[in-house]
Amino acid sequence: MIYPQNFENKIGFNQIRESLISICLSPLGQYFVNRMQYLTRYDLVQKLLHQTHEFQGLMVSGADFPTQHYFDVTEHLNRAAIEGSFLEVRAFFEIKMSLRTIRQALTFFSQAEETLYPNLRALGESIQVDRHLLAAMDKVVDDNGAVRDNASPELARLKADLIHQQALLRKQIQAVLRHAKASGWTNSDAEPTVRGGRIVIPVLAEYKRRLKGLIHDESTSGQTVYIEPDTVFELNNDIKDLENAYHRELIRILTTLTNQLRPAVIDLRKAYQYLGLLDYIRAKAIYATRIEATLPTLHKTPAVKWQDARHPLLYLNFKGQGREVVPLSLTLDKEQRILLISGPNAGGKSVTLKTVGLLQYMLQCGLLIPVAEGSEAGMFEDIFIDIGDEQSLENDLSTYSSHLQNMKQFVVLAGRKSLVLIDEFGTGTEPQLGGAIAEAVLDKLNQQGVFGVITTHYTNLKNFAQRTPGIVNGAMRYDHKELKPLYQLVIGKPGSSFAIEIARKIGLPQDIVNKASNLAGRDKIRYDRLLEELEAEKVEVEKRNRELATQERKMRQSAKEYSDMKQLLEESKADIISEAKQKAKLLLRDTNQQIEATIQQIRQSQADKEQTKQARQALETFTQEKIKVEHRPAKKLSTAKGELVPGDLVSILGQDSVGQIVSLKGKTAEVLFGNIKTIVKTENLERVEGQLPKVKKEAPEPSRQGMNLTQRMADFSPTLDVRGQRAEDALTQLMAFVDDAIMLGIPEIKIIHGRGNGILKQVLRDYLRSVKEVASISNEHVERGGDGASLVVLK
After folding, report:
1. How far is CA 137 from the centre of its chain?
2. How far apart are alpha carbons 326 and 311 in whole angstroms?
3. Annotation: binding site for ATP
4. Where along the chain do its domains lie?
5. Please, what CATH class does the domain formed by 719-794 belong to?
6. Predicted confidence band at 561 (pLDDT cuts at 50, 70, 90)?
7. Binding site members
8. Residue 73 near residue 98 (C-beta atoms within 8 A)
9. EC number(s) of the enzyme (predicted)?
10. pTM (predicted TM-score)
């Protein structure tokens, strides 16, 4: 139930209805706007809301949805339903084009993803459009609304004959006109015209007897007469006959087409109802976009849980002025069903009340409402409103009497599913009695479990709300220093009317203000001052909260910047390490190539001592140059002179790796580099001071210059086993083996060749004796192979 009858006018819904009508594309949609009404069925309201929400999403996506040719063909269908009737060409054009729009809409939803527009797709499930009927209409009428010349063979023939005869007529009439102009019977700028469906020539009245023919008309002044020359009588008659025949053939075609359409009238009415609904839903979606409306979560039971709600009409009005509406947030539920709003005049109490009534009414009419995402709403069976002056001279009712009449209706009819809206509760009569009656009515409404929003200035009602479960105080905020409203709703405390303060501000004489204060009583003044102080404290708390929020945002920003900087440093570190590894790999490749080239040079020089020395010098120079280019000097320990003993820390001359001497044997030393032992000549070692660097568990990527030579030395085995090989292959392998040993400075090597017939041993020893760097060749100890192996000492 909606009370009173002029409810829509009171809350401004009539303006919304007018806006929707103006948005519609045709009377089809306007029809549904006019029928729009308050609904109490949850499933129906839910469906209407989702239809609008889906169409709103459709528009936002920019999809190509048909918006043309929304013709209302209701009258055409009514005429077509009558046996023996036929439709005009214009009617078939509108039907054809609008049916094409309907087909396009149905195709759009059928081809869209199933999850996108389920409610809009369901809307057209039972709609059918006969494509054969569309094709038949398209054969007769083109897309510009004109009859096609080839609508039938007879029509085409008649059209051709007409064109031919009209050409002959224009030719003859022009000849007559030229003669009349030459004779001076007509003006020089005269042209043929039509009178009574016949082509005639304008002739000056004094010469009308000179031109033979039939006078059809004369000008208003009587100075010109319009004559059909007798020479074109027959042509005009022929053309008239052809036009009549053409019209008869066209009527025959239209009659046939109407007969074809007549059986489909019932289906077509449903199709056009569908088109009207699309127009109506489209208008609601456009309006929802204008007011920034959303789809709240809808519940079956009464509830209001709105965030940032705005009055749509006020929003559009302010938007046009470049202003913003202050939104309101409120909750009505089982614990606090009735909101009692107090505060100064012009502070926004009535606007708040109207906002609640209008938005709830819009929602249950199937319209999206301007609230923030995440808002919730419920269903009410009734909405009652008492607002404005309802004084009636006819019924001899005063303003207060009309309010009492409304209170009577509310108390009698309102229940647990009703929403009651009362503005300026209790006013219109003596304050003490009016307040008492208002408190009694409020108590009754609360007992009946109604939901509501009520505005008042009465202190007794504020006190009643404070101590009564189910009712909660609310206040419209007010700047007590500037004495101007802030239009912000605060729930949980009552508001002050600030009457004394406002009177003082507008300049009412001070003695009057003081007397009014005394008359109001100390308790009342103290009460208002308390509210004023609470408001001031609230402003101060909000200010501090804003400052804290600003500081918190700055802290979060600083933390984010720190995190971003840390991430950047980590990424930079990773990039630097990656780059260093890459350069190390390149250096390793270059150094290995140089080593291979040096070995190759030594081989090619047949181990000539001088060339070997030059090659090694070139390798050393290359290494030093690499060190300079990379600008990465290795962290060296300080060197020291003196005799070497086991346990000393040493490094190979020109290298950075530091090892520890394990044992000494003549001019050679066994040195431990990391986990690898190697034999090195003592003359190639230098003692260093400091601590042995800790060896990492995971072998790092070579990053120091000279590590390639050391690695090669560590990987070199002083024993070569060539047993069972052909002499030629064994000799080739021995040559490379000896070259590596000489280049790396290995003092002693061992070749295992086996005994056999002694040929392999002889070939290998002959080659070794030819190498200048070989100091001596001897058999291995008997226990370790005897003459099956050769020990070679290098210089």
Report:
1. 43
2. 9
3. 343-350
4. 39-150+257-290, 304-496, 538-630, 633-715, 719-794
5. alpha beta
6. confident
7. 343-350
8. yes
9. 3.1.-.-, 3.6.4.-
10. 0.63
